[in-house]
């Protein structure tokens, strides 16, 4: 029986643990085991690596665009897809000619896949 000055205790709110439906957790439980902490640390490291990889890819793309703009004299290139860069030409410093993309390139994956047959001159 509570004393006169003491307030009666309220039952603590609990919620179902989604990983273990037969268990319940208090709302303020937070991370409960060292394994949970290790899993969170590993997930954060993976996110850092993914972000660094994405940043490196963007930096490489920017460097390639800058190189193409410098060589061709064309400015404002934002996309390196074939249909957008086919019309860009680069003056050749060795022969005074003009370099351009070869339109006959089919698909690098298809051409790579046909290499084993081409090296033995199949079908001719």
Describe, in plain words, how this protein is organized in 3D:
This protein is mainly alpha-helical. It is built from 3 helices and 4 strands. It has one domain (16-118). The strands form 2 sheets. Strands 1-2 form a two-stranded antiparallel ribbon. A two-stranded antiparallel ribbon has the order 3-4. Strand 3 (90-91) and strand 4 (98-99) form a beta hairpin.
Give a summary of the structure in a few sentences:
With 124 residues, the chain is mainly alpha-helical. It has one domain (16-118).
Summary tags:
two-stranded antiparallel sheet, 124 residues, 3 helices, 44% helix, mainly alpha
**Order of strands side by side in the largest beta sheet?**
1-2
Count of separate structural domains: 1
Strand content: 5-15%
Using only CA atoms, what is the Rg? Answer: 32 Å
Distance between the termini: 100 Å
Mean pLDDT: 78
Structural class of the secondary structure composition? mainly alpha
In DSSP terms (H or I, runs of 4 or more residues), the helix count works out at: 3
- The helicity comes to 40-55%
Shape: elongated
pLDDT below 50 for ≥5 consecutive residues: which ranges? Answer: none
Q: What letter string, H or E per element, gives the SSE order?
A: EEHHEEH
Biggest sheet statistics: 2 strands, antiparallel
What is the number of E strands?
4
């Amino acid at each position: 029986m509570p004393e006169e000055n003491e307030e009666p205790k309220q039952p603590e709110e609990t919620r179902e643990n989604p990983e273990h439906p037969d268990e319940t957790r208090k709302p303020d439980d937070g991370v409960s085991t060292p394994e949970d902490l290790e899993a969170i640390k590993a997930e954060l490291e993976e996110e850092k690596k993914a972000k660094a990889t994405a940043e490196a890819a963007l930096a490489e793309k920017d460097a390639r665009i800058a190189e193409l703009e410098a060589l061709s004299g064309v400015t404002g290139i934002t996309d390196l897809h074939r249909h957008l860069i086919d019309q860009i030409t680069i003056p050749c410093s060795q022969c005074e000619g003009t370099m351009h993309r070869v339109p006959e390139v089919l698909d690098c994956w298809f051409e790579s896949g046909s290499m084993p047959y081409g090296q033995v001159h199949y079908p001719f």
